[in-house]
Write a structure and sequence with these properties.
Helices cover 37% and strands 17% of the residues. The chain is of the alpha+beta class and 380 residues long. α2 packs antiparallel against α14.
């Protein structure tokens, strides 16, 4: 995801090799992991030297470990805290896709919904271009509908969206109308990762439910799952700031800065923040049927044949350490970074987060690899 500093699309497939080990022994109970995981955290932090870095591991819905190091704000002394909030960037996409699944289960939406039908159901004032007639909403969630960000999520739109005071559903409906009244820029079935896809999906959810995407998230996800720290945009209050580096000098960007996050209208594509313990509730719900059925979870996590992007998740295939298919995604608004890896067959979730957009990607990759290595080594 992107900040006003720069439009960072962060195609997650490009990052997969850094956090996608091919081999590893089977996981098991092993010996206590806390000290080894803490050592891995310190190793990743010292190797990359971000402002702050944190990680967590869950198995079978239980947090096995959480650790954090570094500072909330560069140049100040307050350390990262166990309950601090983290901007998740494009990891929000998996939440928007899961929200669609939740509404399907309630009979408000359907899978494989043609975009023309979705626009009618949402009551959007759109003269649909004929080029979109063969697309479904899932094609947008899989980034294969032919929608390219360059025309819509660009510097001109970012500047205008920051000062737009219209209600967010109105902004998103206008954004969706501009997309769907123009011809697709790419062919159906060709992967092109972009944030506009999920803004469009969020707008359809708003039209069908009559609520803002933020309200539906609170009503259908944050509330039922008990995610009390979840919110949108840069975390406010006594929380970490996001950072970027200029040469060897870090710049702190607090929540009051105009570029502390993407425009709010981009929410469905990547503005969620929360504490790690609450994020674990969502990730557990993605691996254990309950909030969603197993059929829905399988659909969310399964790419089409010959493809590697599912619905909000990169799905690179089976990995021995995961005892089956692995899932992953990265997120960044250019001043924060977050990496998430799931092994659904093991009901294992691994997360690394940083309040540093410049160094956070490498730091999160290093920490995820340390955690996977420790977990597999511990099972020998």
């Amino acid at each position: 995801m992107a900040s006003g500093l720069a439009v960072s699309l962060l195609p997650p497939v490009a990052m997969a090799a850094k956090t996608d080990p091919e081999q590893g022994p089977e996981l098991g109970s092993g010996q206590p992991l806390e000290q080894k995981l803490e050592t891995g955290l310190q190793s990743a932090f010292e190797k990359v030297a971000p402002i702050g870095l944190a990680g967590a591991v869950w198995r079978e819905g239980q947090m096995l470990w959480q650790g954090q190091t570094g500072k909330r704000i560069a140049g100040e002394e307050t350390p990262i805290g166990v309950s601090d909030l983290w901007h998740l960037g494009s990891n929000t996409k998996a939440m928007t896709a899961a929200l669609w699944a939740r509404l399907v289960e309630q009979g408000k939406l359907v899978w494989n919904m043609p975009v023309a039908e979705a626009v009618r159901s949402a009551g959007l004032d759109v003269q649909l271009h004929p080029g979109w007639q063969d697309r479904t909403v899932e094609d947008f969630m899989r980034h294969r509908a032919g929608l390219l960000d360059a025309r819509y999520v660009n510097g001109v739109w970012l500047m205008a969206a920051r000062i737009d005071r219209r209600p967010l559903p109105v902004q998103r409906a206008d954004f969706t109308r501009r997309i769907l009244e123009a011809a697709p820029e790419g062919p159906l079935g060709v992967y092109a990762y972009g944030n506009a896809n999920y803004v469009l999906v969020g707008s359809l959810i708003e039209g069908i439910t009559g609520l803002s995407w933020e309200e539906v998230m609170q009503q259908q996800m944050f509330g039922p799952l008990g995610m009390t720290s979840a919110g949108f945009g840069a975390p406010e209050g006594q929380q970490p700031y996001g950072h970027v580096w200029s040469g060897d000098k870090p710049q702190s960007i607090g929540p009051d800065a105009p570029v502390s996050d993407n425009p709010k209208a981009l929410g469905p594509a990547g503005t969620v923040h929360m504490g790690l313990s609450d994020y674990g509730l969502f990730l557990t719900a993605m691996m254990q049927a309950g909030w969603l059925t197993q059929d829905s979870l399988t659909r969310l996590q399964t790419p089409l044949e010959g493809e590697t992007y599912a619905l909000g998740w990169i799905a690179p295939g089976s990995r021995s350490w995961a005892a089956g298919p692995a899932l992953l995604h990265n997120g960044s608004n250019t001043i924060w970074f977050a990496t998430t890896v799931l092994a659904p067959a093991r009901r294992l979730a691994i997360v690394a987060v940083s309040n540093d957009g410049s160094r956070g990607g490498d730091a999160c990759s290093a920490l995820v690899n340390e955690m996977i290595g420790t977990l597999t080594e511990n099972a020998k």
